[in-house]
Amino acid sequence: xxxxxxxxxxxxxxxxxxxxxxxxxxxxxxxxxxxxxxxxxxxxxxxxxxxxxxxxxxxxxxxxxxxxxxxxxxxxxxxxxxxxxxxxxxxxxxxxxxxxxxxxxxxxxxxxxxxxxxxxxxxxxxxxxxxxxxxxxxxxxxxxxxxxxxxxxxxxxxxxxxxxxxxxxxxxxxxxxxxxxxxxxxxxxxxxxxxxxxxxxxxxxxxxxxxxxxxxxxxxxxxxxxxxxxxxxxxxxxxxxxxxxxxxxxxxxxxxxxxxxxxxxxxxxxxxxxxxxxxxxxxxxxxxxxxxxxxxxxxxxxxxxxxxxxxxxxxxxxxxxxxxxxxxxxxxxxxxxxxxxxxxxxxxxxxxxxxxxxxxxxxxxxxxxxxxxxxxxxxxxxxxxxxxxxxxxxxxxxxxxxxxxxxxxxxxxxxxxxxxxxxxxxxxxxxxxxxxx
Length: 437
Known about the structure:
Layout: H1 2-11, H2 51-63, E1 67-71, H3 74-86, E2 92-96, H4 101-110, E3 113-117, H5 123-130, E4 135-141, H6 152-160, E5 164-168, H7 175-178, E6 190-193, H8 195-198, E7 206-210, H9 217-225, H10 234-272, E8 275-277, E9 289-293, H11 299-308, E10 315-317, E11 320-323, H12 331-343, H13 365-369, E12 373-377, E13 391-393, H14 408-416, E14 420-422, E15 429-433
Parallel strand pairs: 2-3, 2-4, 4-5, 5-6
Antiparallel strand pairs: 1-7, 6-7, 8-9, 9-11, 10-11, 12-15, 13-14
Helix pairs in contact: 1-10, 2-10, 3-4, 3-9, 10-12
């Protein structure tokens, strides 16, 4: 563990600190002593040559990349770096409508021209229809929040077309511990891993993997640097080093234990309760647990009950309860979870209906985002161009993005929707472009 060892050596010097940060290592929590800055012995993330470079090279060797770069701005910063490396302003790209909001933000920042695939259609067939002579590349998300993994045939087709392929594999940092073939790193040019989601590193730590020689290491480093602080946290970087050591030394063993615990929990849950674990057909991360009752029930109530019993889920929606166990969960965790689910109150509740919309696009995201706008009700916005995201949660994917036109079907849906609408300045209202703008 090069970062750990290097930082320990600096700490053992018992320096008198006349440099950043302001706490000078004297806060009475051990973690503060690791919060240092770029001095002799600590290296520099923007131009790594010593312990940071060695940790990056170890991660690269472990995951099989050309080079792996540390992001202390989470997967969001890494996605921005990946998109900036892969594409130029004005490029046409194809992305999934269910992409994380940071992919949309990246398209805005770079002035890209996205076309979308939608979850209610065949992904490969949609890609074949959307790809044109102007298409520069594709951004895919695999696995999804629910552990759904894109099939190899889709990646193979994209590669056969020589399109740039960026994959947001934020929820799949652990996949190679299960099976190398679950990861998109065999096909993609750039893959982003959010270590903190499924591996034992701190929140806001991620890795951008350069997986092909299409782009130079120096060019990728330069682009990622644009989206990072010039004062990166050594506490966060140190946690990446620790997580990598656990991955290498214990990862396979811990993953087998986790898979065994998940399988046993699924069996016991379905034998002893009316809950079920939902997996998709085809490739699926079996450590991602979507728990659904056989009847239409109030999952928010169940979630509250579980919290009172000491169980915290990732989130609840009318699709079920989502749990994200990792290699750091132990068998006792699953025993407590099963016991709690056997004791919760079950209240009936009608399911929320989710729909997939394909609104008309009037202009690109960046163009609409930067124009003058005004706030009006959904009904008043009918036929107008929106300038913000409209995201029903759940499921959390935008049904309108800046530059698209509000239509009658969308108005009816939003007025009847009983979940939360996130991203809006005011509930029930949306910003639209000024008609005279």
